[in-house]
Amino acid sequence: MARKKKSRSAKSAGSRKSARRPVRARAAGPATLVGVVQDANTRLPVNRAMIKIVGGSNFGRTTFTNVVGLYALTNLAVGRNLVEASKGAKVQEKDKTLAAGLNILNFTL
What we know:
CATH topology: Immunoglobulin-like
Distance between the termini: 84 Å
Number of helices: 1
Order of helices and strands: HEEEEEEEE
Shape: elongated
Strand content: 35-45%
Radius of gyration: 25 Å
Oligomer: single chain
CATH architecture: Sandwich
């Protein structure tokens, strides 16, 4: 006895959607910005370079690098910021969008 093949209905064959996971929103906690400042010629760390947020919701926040060129700004609001590193006449600005948690931004002066 011959079996009949079951045909898929047009509706079930064409309406299959790939299983997608829902996008989870990040917790809106504080952001931390860390990085290293190096000399452009020697690649040595720059001690006492000033790191300042010159644009965005964290405007005015300032810190300095340590002996090995490291800096950290903590408890920042998430969002877009303009960050400036300077030492003497050397200045570099970078645009950075901060997310909750750790954010890295290095400079070369």
